[in-house]
Amino acid sequence: MEKIPNRREIIDRKKLVAEITQLADEYPVDGIDFRNAVLKTLKTTLKSGQDVIKERFLKSNKGRPSMYAAAFLIDQIIRTIYDTATSYVYPLNNPTPEERLSLVAVGGYGRGELAPHSDVDLLFLFPYKQTPWSEQVIEFCLYMLWDLGLKVGHSTRNPNECIRLSKQDITIQTALLESRYVWGDQALATEVRTRFRKEIIPGNSRAFIDAKLQERDDRHARFGNSRYVVEPNIKEGKGGLRDLQTLFWIAKFVYSTTEVSELQKLGVFTESERKKFTKASNFLRTVRCHLHYLTNRPEERLTFDIQSEMAKRLGYKDHAGTLGVERFMKHYFLVAKDVGDLTRIFCANLEAEQQKKSRLPIPRFGLLQRKLDGFLVDGGRLNVQDDNDFNEDPLKILGLFHLAQQKDLDVHPNALRLIRQNLKLINKGLRNNPEANQMFLEMLTSKKDPETTLRRLSEAGVLGRFIPDFGRVVAQMQHDMYHVYTVDEHTIRAVGILSQIEDGLLADEHPLSHRIMPKILSRPILYMAVLLHDIAKGRGGDHSILGAEVAEKLCPRIGLTEAETETVSWLVRYHLLFSNTAFKRDVADPKTVEDFVKIVQSPERLKLLLILTVVDIRAVGPNVWNGWKGQLLRELYYASETALTGGHVSEGRAERAKQKQEALRETLKGWSKANIEKHLEKFYESYWVANSLETQEEHAKLIQQAEKSGEDLTIHAKSDPFRDITEVTVYTPDHPGLFARIAAAMSIAGANIVDAKIHTTTDGMALDTFFVQDDEDNAFEQKSQITKLKKVIEETLKGEIKARQELKAKSASAFPSRTRVFKAAPSVLVNNVASNIHTVIEVRGRDRVGLLADLTRALFELSLSVSSAHISTFGERVVDVFYVKDMFGLKITNNVKINAIEQKLLEALTGQLSAPETIKTPKIEKA
After folding, report:
1. Distance CA 439, CA 395 (A)
2. Rounded to an integer, what distance in angstroms lies between the CA atom of residue 63 and that of residue 73?
């Protein structure tokens, strides 16, 4: 354990022992009063020591000394408890050889480190078998530690058991590897340590290394297999403390040291790598200590609600275009990347060491080594022939990755190490080298797993040097609930998804993208657009516009023609257009498609933009894409394709309505001609244009059934797993506020409305269709869910459920979310250009329980009629779009009315809506 300054300020054990001696004089040592007095004294001492450690830490911002100090404090507490037990409570006048006990620290505590809320792992060692005396002492120690509020992990064994179990269990083997004598019989602890070195370590290095690396890989898989998740686990996640500890364990097993300076002397690390190791280790320990103190528990995840405060405590301030929290997280991700680099270097040296120790010497150019295009294939991995190769020809840096991709080879850690040491060779000259740019373009557009190659280039630091604009977004975090990965990781994953679509691996999930991908005229355009679509994030402006400017400069250098460059730049500029239009606008409104097509202009751009949009959404995170989003994108694509290939969007609307009516006539078999005509007369032109023939047929049957039964309320629900949506249709007499009441009912039932189509028949009935999902963006697949949903809607419309009160109670009982740290500025946009016959209201703000119900109630109170609603949620932010008319069926153009709309909806957004007016509805009863 390292030297700890002013130890007595933390704990003065001499003084503590004197106090306990005095207590032993005051109370019978075998009574409960003595025990309680000792416990009280220890609690005071422990609290005082912990306060000193915390105060020192907050002043210094250094985690390592704090963790050493915490382990020292616990050592002294444990020694005092043990001495109290053996001196006063269970003394031995003539101990037998079996009545010995050793207290040994294992795990992190064994390394002499304890984070503020870490477990204290203890091994109680006895010579052969437990005696009544040792059982009593162990029990006394454990109960005292537990009563002090410490979390103690413990085991009781003899030396033979330690060695036998160590041979069987890698976890026990690792614990013993880190064991440290704390107190009691030192000879027992020495015996176990000596036997471990003699019986466990010799000849087992390879097995231990393999087991620990496999354990690491399994752990990475459990935690998402990426170090670039925006809420990382700093202990167990990829690039976290556990990865560093794995290196410590292996180093101690193989080299008998955990000192990084010793590893440098052995040639495992260079001076620069040693410094990087120490920096990473210190940074992660400091972050972990802050995390424990901030949450007052053994928290290991850097969750959103903690990151901002953590950034403040560590001194990260907001800069132009970048928040302090984003700068802190970028530092964290770069450290996690360094940990990965050091792991590869360390493992490469281990491999070389194991080969040297192998009984069968491996000749330099034996079976496992061969030359290939100026490189060396070493054990299936591509390496340099000479450590000076890159200095002599910097083009070989890119050539190495290019050849590895072509030949399906991994890159040797030694080559990666040399590249990192020579990144300065990737300069302006290499960046402007046509051959280098051609190689890069071939790697990016290769049909051989471009994602892996890009990730290798990025991990090695090559991608950020070769394309400096990409280097600016490496480890760039987006501090919101929507984006799961850093910008660079998101981009590389997007390229991988594009490659999978092209290979046909996602044909079932993305049938349209799969079908049009082979029709793309220029693959380089699409791959470059995916690579560059977010390249200007974090610069303080509109990243789409800034990214388009980057594309204009970069694409010619990479080797794209002027026309290709223009298309890539356009795609980057408008990469959000498809999703914004599909998710926030009514595609059935002809103006929506007209405006979209004016920007897109060509069928080829339409194809490119669709696929770019799909891969962008898919790469945001594992649960962001769903079938409903796919359906909305397909609807916009088909409508736009028709317009771009000679069809008409607004012209012929009446003709299309007539065609739909004629098609329905043919479909309604068994209906009399009079009943068919009566049904057709129920709907206005907008209904026929907005709905498919299949939907219209379902509606006809629903209405027929309702009229036969005489019911005033009919609710039909069906789920579509492919589209990840449940479609709920409500047929009932129309009345003001109907939409608002249904929206409230669905919120109560746990349904999120993502889209709604509102139709009123010529005879005063409402035919409202709602597209809903559960909290995980999935359809309601269980029958019980649908039954509950229908029941809540019915009871709400009948007035049996007071929706407002229910929602208020639901909101009040909801657990505080870790996302409460995020702010989303409320805004209301009233748009009279987006539609020819509707006013389009776009509402943006912070999502919460019952928000849609509040918004629709506000629209009702404003005497506005909603024709369709489109609801999009992006993490903590929500964007709700309503197509509305006034009470006379007209657009809202009066500025006073528009101001009133904005004010009322802002009140609803911020939860400041005035006391509810009673929504009077006709009583719904069975006929």
Report:
1. 10
2. 15
Residues 90/133, Cβ–Cβ less than 8 Å:
yes
Domains of the chain: 7-202 (3.30.460.10), 206-357 (1.20.120.330), 710-909 (3.30.70.260)
Helix (H, G, I), strand (E, B) or coil at 646: coil
**Where does residue 601 fall: left (phi above 0), alpha (psi -120 to 50 degrees), or beta otherwise?**
left
Q: Write the Ramachandran bin of 499: left for phi over 0, alpha for psi from -120 to 50, otherwise beta.
A: alpha
Pairing of strands 839-846, 410-411: unpaired
- Cα separation, 616 vs 537, whole angstroms: 14
Residue 209 is encoded by which pair of tokens? 């290394």
Give tens-digit pLDDT for 413-447: 889 889 988 999 999 999 999 999 999 999 999 99
Residue 110 and residue 99: Cα distance in Å, rounded? Answer: 24
Pair 783, 717: CB distance under 8 Å: no
Amino acid 364: pLDDT = 41
Task: Give the pTM.
Answer: 0.76
Q: How confident is the model at residue 590 (pLDDT cuts 50, 70, 90)?
A: confident
Cα atoms found within 13 Å of the Cα of residue 820, Cβ hemisphere only: 6
* 879-880-886-892 Cα dihedral, nearest 10 degrees: 10
C-alpha to C-alpha distance for 271 and 266, rounded to whole angstroms: 11
Backbone φ and ψ for 519, nearest 5 degrees, come out as -90, -5
State the Cα–Cα distance between residues 730 and 770, nearest whole angstrom. Answer: 8
The mean pLDDT of 787-799, rounded to a whole number, is 88
Cα atoms found within 13 Å of the Cα of residue 266, Cβ hemisphere only = 17
Q: What integer pLDDT is reported at residue 134 of this predicted model?
A: 94
C-alpha dihedral sign at 672, 678, 684, 687 = negative
Among residues 204, 206, 208, the alpha carbon closest in space to that of 170 is found at: 208
